[in-house]
Amino acid sequence: MRVIVDANIPAAERCFGALGEVIALPGREIDGAALAGAEALIVRSITRVDAALLEAAERAGARLRFVGTCTIGTDHVDQAALAARGIEFASAPGCNAEAVVDYVLSSLTLLAERTDAALDQRRIGIVGAGNVGERLYRRLTALGLDCRRCDPPRAEAEPGERFYDLDGLCQWAEVLCLHAPLVPDGPHATHHLLNAERIAALKPGTWLLNAGRGDCLDGAALRQRLADAGDLRTVLDVWEAEPGIDAALWQLADIATPHIAGYSLDGKLRGTQQVYAAALRRFGMPAGLSFEDLAPPPPLTRLELGSGLSPWEALRLCMRAVYDVRRDHDGLARMAAELGMARGFDAWRAGYPLRREFATLEVAFGKDSQSLVPLCAAAGFRVRGY
C-alpha cells in the first residue's frame, strides 16, 4: 500500500509504516500527480482535499480508500466529495486543544505584562465553545477569571447551558478570544463573523485574539481600525489568505504568529495517533501504538517555586519555562525578513522548534509557596497530590 503523508506530521513513518510504503511531502506539494498509486492520504490543514484534487488523483491512478487529517479543523476537506467516492475520512478532534489554550494563556499574560494590566480584572469573552473554547473557558474560570461564552449551535442544542449573544458579548468583553470553526454558509455561518461593524463596535482598549480560523475575522476592517485608531491590542495566529498574509496587518498586531497555536509536539502526536488508529480500523488491522508509546519525555520535567513571587508572577514563570509565545512572534518576523512573508510563514511552521504542553511540567512548592498550588493546578500544570 502507498501512503502519502504531510512531511510535517511527526512519527508518520513509525505509525503509518504499518500500512505500507510511506512517502512524505510538503503539504503544499501534495497534488493529483503526487497521489499516483496511493491508497491512503494523511494531511494537515494546509492541503486542500477537494473534488479537484480527487479528480486529478484519479487521473494519475490513485486508488484512495482512506483520507485523514491530523487536525481538529476539517474545513479544508470536502467530506461530501470523499463520501461520493466511498473514501473513508477521519480527523483528530481535540488533539491540540490543550496546546491552543496554552498559547492563549501565554499571549494574554504577555499582553498583561506589556500593558501593566491585571488579567484577573479583565472580562473575557470566548467566541466558539468547541474543543478549544470550552477548555479555555474551564481553565480561565478555574483561575478565577470572569468569562462568558458565545456558541449559537451549542445554545440551541443545550438550552440548560448559559451562552451569550455575540453582539452583547463584544460590548461586555475587555478580552475577546475567537475559537470558532470556519462555516462558509447556513444559519450559523462564521465567515467574517467578526465583521467591520463588530470590529468598529469594540471598546477602545479591547484585547482581540484569534486562534480559530483566519476567515472568521475581517482582516481589512481590523487593519483599518488599527491604522486609524490604534486602540486595540491584538493577538493573531490565523489569517486570511495564508501563507500570503496581509503584511500591513501583521505589522500592526501586538503578537503575530504563523498558525502555530496548536503546534505542540504533544498535540501533533495525538493527531497522528488518532488518525493512525482510524486507518488501522479502516484496513482491518489490530490496534497499534498509543499516544504514550509515541510521546518522548519532556526536556524540563520539574520546577520548584520558592517564596517571594506573586501568584501571577509565579504563573508567568511556569508558563515561560514551557512555552513563550515571543519565540513564535520573533520567528515569523525573522523568517519573513529573510524569505518574504509567504515563504517565511511556511518555513517557520515546517521547521517548528520543539514545544511541549503545560501539563508535561510538574510544579513543586516550598513551604512558603503552598498558596500557589491551586492556581498552578488550574493553569494546567501537574501538581503532585492536587
TrEMBL record:
Query: Pfam families recorded for this chain?
Result: 2-Hacid_dh_C, DUF3410
Erythronate-4-phosphate dehydrogenase dimerisation domain location, by residue?
296-370
Question: Its Gene Ontology molecular function terms?
Answer: 4-phosphoerythronate dehydrogenase activity; glyoxylate reductase (NADPH) activity; hydroxypyruvate reductase [NAD(P)H] activity; NAD binding; protein dimerization activity
Domain D-isomer specific 2-hydroxyacid dehydrogenase NAD-binding positions: 118-261
Q: Supply the EC number(s).
A: 1.1.1.290
Keyword check for Lipoprotein: no
> Could you say which residues bind NAD(+) here?
151, 237, 262
Q: What class of enzyme is it?
A: oxidoreductase
The residues listed in the UniProt record as binding substrate, with positions renumbered to this chain, are 45, 71, 263
Its BP terms in the Gene Ontology are:
pyridoxine biosynthetic process
Say yes or no: keyword RNA-binding present: no
Give its localization: Cytoplasm
- Which InterPro entries does the UniProt entry name for this protein? D-isomer_2-hydroxyacid_DH, D-isomer_DH_NAD-bd, Erythronate-4-P_DHase, Erythronate-4-P_DHase_dimer, NAD(P)-bd_dom_sf, PdxB_dimer_sf
* Top-level division of the source organism's lineage: Bacteria
Provide this UniProt record's keywords sorted from A to Z.
Cytoplasm, NAD, Oxidoreductase, Pyridoxine biosynthesis
Q: What does this protein do?
A: Catalyzes the oxidation of erythronate-4-phosphate to 3-hydroxy-2-oxo-4-phosphonooxybutanoate.
The subunit structure is:
Homodimer.
The record's annotation in NCBIfam families points to: PRK00257.1
Q: Which family does it belong to?
A: Belongs to the D-isomer specific 2-hydroxyacid dehydrogenase family. PdxB subfamily.
Would you tell me the protein name for this molecule? Erythronate-4-phosphate dehydrogenase
Record the organism: Halomonas salipaludis
